[in-house]
Fold:
Amino acid sequence: MILALVLCLSAATVLAWLIFALAVYALPVAAGGLAATLAYGSGAGVPGAAIAGLVSGAIVFAAGQLAIERSRSPITRSVILALYTAPAAVVGFAIVQSIAGRLVPSSSWQTAFASLGGIVVAASAWARLTAFAPPGGPGEVRGMSVAQP
Structure:
């Protein structure tokens, strides 16, 4: 019984870590899934749809990283970050809603926990995405500095 409890807690911890680590990729995965669905529907077959999905997801992710890194305006950077964290918030809401649906009998508490979960996952994705952008403005030389005596 103790071993089962430890294993369940370990599995829950790993799944929670995965949710926070992979929330950054919610928009590229959604774009890749949409491209794969459209490619498959147009007759590309499974290999063509897989290639279209992978390429479009990689392009969306790379474009987001480049846009965040190169944006000069804090407002532009915030808009880009909001576009990337909104799907993460939806994913966090949905995951916590499905878990709370099994554990919490009240639907209002389920929604409250799910909303909090969506906010926390979105904040985590926001923090991870801002880590992609190095400190300072674009074009600045970023390196180690040695203080002169």
